[in-house]
Amino acid sequence: MIRTTSLIAVALMFVGWLAIGDAADLKVIKSQKAKDVSVSLLSETGQWKSGKNEFVVAFTSTKDNSPVDVGKVTLNTSMPMPGMAPMIAGATLQPDTPPGRYRGTINFADSGDRQVTVSWDGPAGTGSTKFTVPVR
Hints:
With 136 residues, this protein is of the alpha+beta class. It has a single domain, classed as Domain of unknown function DUF4426 (Immunoglobulin-like, Sandwich), CATH 2.60.40.3340. It contains 1 helix and 9 strands. It has one helix at residues 2-24; strands spanning 27-34, 37-43, 51-61, 72-81, 84-90, 92-95, 101-108, 112-122, 125-135. A 5-stranded antiparallel β-sheet has the order 1-2-3-7-6, with no helix packed on it. Strands 5-4-8-9 form a 4-stranded antiparallel β-sheet, with no helix packed on it. The chain starts with a helix and ends with a strand. Mean pLDDT is 87; it is low at 4-21.
């Protein structure tokens, strides 16, 4: 029994270490303030590219940089195309830990500047912000 408990404790510490290491390895793609919340778009490379992209959207307080649980989050992108309808892509987002972090994926057919809209609705209120992110 003691051996099993020890193994579980070591496993939980290892998983916790991996989660912390993962967060530390992320680079900022773009960060934007909206009212009392800072919205940061993060990835391993610090940029988006053509094809599938994995990223994190993190919400923190502008006062003390603590995580902010904003509830339901959406992220959509648009790229204007001269003489054509804009190219639109939406991300798939899932809540992560700690609260205020959301893991996402998005797919881009080609490169170019995207207008990104992040919206939220939850315990911290309702809000949105827009910014431009280049896709390389």
